[in-house]
Amino acid sequence: MNYTFRPCTLDDFNFLFKLKKQNFKLYVEKYWSWSDEEQKNILKEDLKVHLEHKRIILLNDKPIGIYVTHFTDNGELYINEISILKEYQNKGIATDIISKQLKENENKGIRTILQVFKNNPAKKLYERLGFKVYNETETHYQMEKL
User: Fold this and answer.
1) Which residues contact 13 (CB under 8 A, 6 or more apart)?
2) Tens of pLDDT along 4-34?
3) What is the pTM (predicted TM-score) of this model?
């Protein structure tokens, strides 16, 4: 599948909320409660701080997901989020995006880190791509690829 990226804008709010609700509500509810209003407020605050790091994943010019990264103060690349609409999952898109990122980071000698909800099956994808758990919280595994 030939996907492309474009910068995220505030106009993407409804799409981003739909994506968040579809892909993360189940995990959030395991540890906390889910309120659409509260989650919309959290998303609004997140967009104020991290909009420049977010890229919309497009397939045939249609938004199908989001990819968010930033560099930490230590020079590591943190994958904040990769999320794809359910109907486009399991088609190799996330695997391809992360694999390309890892190859680029490896060539530059950059450590790649992320965290994943403990009950999220995406952990298996990250392990297949070479990530290892280096720490955990009550809710997340923190993973790295050197």
Assistant:
1) 43, 44, 47
2) 999 999 999 999 999 999 999 988 888 888 9
3) 0.92
